[in-house]
Amino acid sequence: MLKMSLEMLATGGFVAIYFLPAILADRTKRRSVLLLALFNLLLGWTVVGWLAALYWAFHPDSARKLGRIVRNNQRLSAQRTINAIVARAHERAARGGRFDLAHGSEGNRKS
């Protein structure tokens, strides 16, 4: 029983060390954790593959790539806001309501 427990503990330790690059990438909130985990799974059995995955886990994202990500997120957010405003305007127009710019209120006046 003790031998089996030690074997299970050793196997768990080996698996934890084998996937250490993927675990560290997840803990440091890397954007490419899944890709790194797959790389680690497929090539981690080689020493060079495991060291490359470990380096990748610690290597920060480039400033240029992060800037692109931020710009894309801002663009998407602006587009969602514009789409929501346009959809709301279409809903109001379909209800027949008009917006009185002088008083800042909505009214159903016929002109």
TrEMBL record:
UniProt keyword terms in alphabetical order: Membrane, Transmembrane, Transmembrane helix
Annotated TM spans: 35-58
InterPro entries for this protein: Phage_imm (IPR016410)
Domain of life (superkingdom): Bacteria
Name of protein: Immunity protein
